[in-house]
Amino acid sequence: MSVEVRVPTILRTHTGGQKLVTGEGDTLAKLFDSLDAQHAGLKGRVVTDEGTLHRFVNVYINDEDVRFIGGLDAALADGDQVTILPAVAGGM
Amino acid sequence: MSHALSEGFWAPRAACTLACVLRIAHELVEAMVAHARADHPDEACGLIAGPEGTGEPKRHIPMINAARSTTFYEFDSEEWKQVYDQMWDNDEEVVVAYHSHTHTEAYPSRSDAGIASQLGLPGAHYVLVTTKDPDVAEVRSFRIADEVITEEPIEVTGAPEAVQSYKFAHTPDSTVYDCS
């Protein structure tokens, strides 16, 4: 099973500059494990040591923000597309 | 040589890997200021996209402030995905990420710098607009990386509107008007 992942500019240092990479896994957590094997350090930018998503990163499966569909436990199907984006936020 | 280029005070630093000046059409500055005014007293936020690799701001994209707050802003997750998909299809990148401060100066706050440094938009000019003065908005541009904030001059191209409803601030002052 193969899932395409769109990598934001800030994380392309982990993918040799590639903006589109491919990983494996039937959940998001397994996908990030598979990605980290090929692209060292990528997982750590998205997933905390406690095993949750970092607060200021958005991850989508197709058009769904994964926070609303189970976070790292969200299920993946063959052909799904995952997008990682920095959350853009701040305050005075 | 322009005034800005002759100063030499903004020598490249860690936060400033690209050309350390924001060169932008006056219409885009006016669009950011108008958006900030329209959303006042809430903070406004948005992007200016440009063709990938050029660093040229071209397309203004006002964004929803999902926080709907006078003191905080956050892109709406669903809208941000839609906008990113359009940029991906157009081979565009984020050139400017802007937001407004409605009661404080146009300078990145601790949370602005902290969040931008965690997982930010490398290469983007972070533009701040303050609407605390009801008559004249102030616009400033920064690079943010590793929690280091580096201010840069703004170089406006084209003829600014006859009556200025905004001003630029940079220390030392190095605003360049290119009215050719």
Quick structural summary:
With 92 residues, chain A is of the alpha+beta class.
Q: Overview of this structure, please?
A:
The complex is a heterodimer of chains A (92) and B (180). Chain A has two helices and six strands. Chain A has a single domain (3-86), classed as Roll (Ubiquitin-like (UB roll)). In chain A, 17% of the residues lie in helices and 26% in strands. Chain A has helices at residues 28-38, 42-46; strands spanning 3-6, 20-23, 57-61, 64-65, 81-86, 89-91. Chain A is α+β, with helices and mostly antiparallel strands and 92 residues long. Chain B contains four helices and eleven strands; from the N terminus they run H-E-H-E-E-E-H-E-H-E-E-E-E-E-E. In chain B, the strands form two sheets. In chain B, strands 2, 3, 5, 6, 7, 8 and 10 form a seven-stranded mixed beta sheet that branches. In chain B, strands 1-9-11 form a three-stranded parallel beta sheet. Helices cover 23% and strands 33% of the residues of chain B. Chain B has 180 residues and is an alpha/beta fold. Chain B has one domain: Cytidine Deaminase, domain 2. The longest helix of chain B has 14 residues, at 26-39. At the A-B interface, strand 3, strand 5 and strand 6 of A face strand 4, helix 3, strand 5 and helix 4 of B. Chain A: This is MoaD/ThiS family protein. Chain A: It holds the Pfam family ThiS.
What key attributes describe this structure?
heterodimer, A: 92 residues, alpha+beta, Ubiquitin-like (UB roll), 2 helices, 6 strands, globular, B: 180 residues, alpha/beta, Cytidine Deaminase, domain 2, 7-stranded mixed sheet, disordered N terminus, disordered C terminus
List the SSEs and their pairings.
The complex is a heterodimer of chains A (92) and B (180).
Chain A: E1 3-6, E2 20-23, H1 28-38, H2 42-46, E3 57-61, E4 64-65, E5 81-86, E6 89-91
Chain B: H1 3-7, E1 22-25, H2 26-39, E2 45-51, E3 59-63, E4 72-74, H3 77-89, E5 92-101, H4 110-118, E6 125-130, E7 137-145, E8 148-152, E9 154-157, E10 166-168, E11 176-178
Parallel strand pairs in B: 1-9, 5-6, 7-10, 9-11
Antiparallel strand pairs in B: 2-3, 2-5, 6-7, 7-8
Protein name (chain A): MoaD/ThiS family protein
Pfam families (chain A): ThiS (PF02597)
InterPro entries (chain A): Beta-grasp_dom_sf, Mopterin_synth/thiamin_S_b, Sulfur_Carrier/Prot_Modifier, ThiS/MoaD-like
